Amino acid sequence: MESSAYITLKDVVFSRAGRRIFDGVTLDIPKGKITAIMGPSGTGKTTLLRLIGGQLRPDSGQVSVDGHNVPALKRKDLYRLREKMGMLFQSGALFTDLSVYENVAFPLRVHTKLPEDMIRDIVLMKLEAVGLRGARKLMPSELSGGMTRRVALARSIALDPELIMYDEPFAGQDPIAMGVLVKLIRDLNSSMGLTSVLVSHDVPESLSICHYACILADGKVIGEGTPEELRQHPSDRVQQFLNGQPDGPVPFHYPASDAAADFGVTGGAL
Amino acid sequence: MMDRIAALGRGGLDVISSFGRSGRFLVGVLAGIPRPATGFPLLLRQLYFVGVLSLAIVVVSGLFIGMVLGLQGYTILSDYGSEAAIGQMIALTLVRELGPVVTALLFAGRAGSALTAEIGLMKATEQLSSMEMMGVDPLRRVIAPRLWAGFIAMPVLAIIFSVVGIWGGMLVGVDWLGVFEGAFWGNMQSSVDFVDDVLNGVIKSVVFGFVCAWIAVYQGYDCVPTSAGISSATTKTVVYSSLAVLGLDFVLTAVMFGDF
Amino acid sequence: MAQRTTEVIVGLFMIAGLAALLFLALQVSGLSPKSAGDRYTLYANFNDTGGLAPRGKVSMAGVTIGAIESIELDTETFQARVVLAIDAGIDNIPADSAAVIRTSGLLGDQYIDISVGGDLESLSPGDTFYSTQSAMNLERLISNFASGR
């Protein structure tokens, strides 16, 4: 499947505020498939999406999307490339001063010169796809968390992108909303042939829909493969993460000095 | 001791680098000339929020400041028997100083803080990021109309402030304290010059408008995207804008009205 | 809010601003549209202009008829040469009129008052006042009085 990679990361090193977040990440994301990127909180999964979207530049290494080397792109070309990308943010990131309808119409209005009735048709179609055609007059503040994400999803597919990136789509959702999102992501991928990148720490949901997954920890890829391959993965750390064990290679205790000394139970201190 | 010196140096570098960032930010905002078709409605909307909604506080403050000037001026000037000069005194104080300065301070508190909070919130809720990912530059789409709106609205507000203030002064001086109306206006007209006083006052307010709007949008754009970050950015907007306005006012006054 | 409403309100706001500026120009600074242009120049030489300043007014019988354009030193006579811009409508100032520097009130601004003469001929553009009266110098007046001269 490497032959049809849509996104390629090669030896990507990135650090922020003196902390090294990625230390040589190499990763291929196949075209037309759903790829899940998983890992504990704070491993820079969102940062990875921002690197792909060109919002951040790596210290070294290559990030290429559809054959373009993202960090080297000029502003204008980068913005053109982004028109082919959709991104679903964790918070939905709907524009709070625009209605649901206007939110979905926003990318169309900015990037196309379509007449108003055509924009209307496309917007209603996209809203229908996420099941919220009836909510088009509402303002973002009137939506529930799950609905917000669905509207945001409709907005990110408004321009029929080739790539869509989901940042923690399941975080903080009730089981029904989560089920709806899982179904939507799968449907969109199969009906539109989208390349989907999914960043999440919800293991069962992610593994249930992805074709390919990779696990990040401590700035490196510690395991990758199909969901089946990962479940059989020999590494302890992969197993600890997948099964959610509290203790293992990633320790339960934050590094600390000797407990006895902290509690003052060594003789003579008092 | 060494730590303190190092901290001082680091603080200084932070200040300089934030000046640099805000300068680069300004270039980014002003770089693209907006297309009139999309830019104009956005500008109008911001003019409404920044200008029209600040009108009430500006008018009310202007009225009271003018009335106070009328009262104070009358008590002082009547000692010299020249209470007819209050027209001149009120007009010159308002047009040259109080109009631009007080309007700018009110603007920083009313519109500047709102701009910072709004942009900060847009940053915190990833709206700016998502706009960027949609291939739309938030600097041009979100920041530029707000900056221009502040820039345009401020002189308009300052002029209205001066006029309302003069009217308030007339109300007190002429209608209540009985200064002869002809002398009130006549003294004013013979001492206020359109170019030297009125236009210089307008130039001041244009400068203040630009600086206040710049500080407000920059603080919003540069804030730490958390609730604590937004509130501290809002405070900074008001504090920095006020200091900048008062400092610049001295410099501009020295250049415009000083004899050197 | 509908786009249209915003447009109208912002439009009103801008108009209010313009109207206020117009008020400042006409009512507060006394700028009158006709003041520019239509003027002609006269000269007057003074031994002492005192606190006279450019843009000060020139009046006749208390009515403003022009403005002081500039004040410079004549390096041959060491007198001050004052350039006056007089409204074109006042074209019959008698040739023997005098330009007098006066003070409005005790402490007010100084201005030039033209005390009318009786000559049948009138001053034409570019002429110089034949007789002038310099600024009354209060200090000198007092010291003259004190020294008994």
In short:
Chain A is an alpha/beta fold and 270 residues long. Helix content of chain A is 36%, strand content 24%. In chain A, a hairpin with a 2-residue loop joins strand 9 and strand 10.
Uncertain residue ranges of chain A: none
Anisotropy-based shape of chain C: elongated
User: What is the SS-derived class of chain A?
Assistant: alpha/beta
Q: Roughly what is the average pLDDT of chain A, rounded to an integer?
A: 83
Fraction of residues in H or I helices of chain A = 25-40%
Classified in CATH, the superfamily of chain A is: P-loop containing nucleotide triphosphate hydrolases
Strand content of chain A: 15-25%
Instruction: Supply Rg of chain A.
Output: 21 Å
Which residues of chain C form runs of ≥5 with pLDDT under 50?
A: none
Number of extended strands of chain A: 10
* First-to-last CA distance of chain A: 66 Å
Order of helix and strand elements from N to C terminus of chain A: EEEHEEHEHHHEHEHEEHHH
Query: How far is the N terminus from the C terminus of chain C?
Result: 82 Å
Number of helices of chain A: 10
CATH-level-2 architecture of chain A: 3-Layer(aba) Sandwich
The value of Rg of chain C in angstroms is 22 Å
Q: Would you list the SSEs of chain C in sequence order as H and E?
A: HEEEEEEEH
Question: How would a crystallographer describe the biggest sheet of chain C?
Answer: 7 strands, mixed
Number of domains of chain C: 2
GO molecular function, one term (chain C): phospholipid binding
Domain Mce/MlaD (chain C): 39-116
Protein name (chain C): Outer membrane lipid asymmetry maintenance protein MlaD
Pfam families (chain C): MlaD (PF02470)
Folded structure, characterized:
Chain A: One of its GO terms (molecular function) is ATP binding. Chain A: It comes from Marinobacter vinifirmus. Chain A: Keywords: ATP-binding, Nucleotide-binding, Transport. The complex is a heterotrimer of chains A (270), B (260) and C (149). Chain A has 270 residues and is an alpha/beta fold. Chain A has 10 helices and 10 strands. Chain A has a 6-stranded mixed beta sheet, sandwiched between helices. Chain A has a 4-stranded antiparallel beta sheet with strand order 2-1-4-5, with no helix packed on it. The model of chain A has no long low-confidence stretch (mean pLDDT 83). Chain B has one domain. Chain B has 260 residues and is mainly alpha-helical. By secondary structure, chain C is α/β, with parallel strands linked by helices. Classes of the chains: A alpha/beta (270), B mainly alpha (260), C alpha/beta (149). Chains in contact: A-B, B-C.
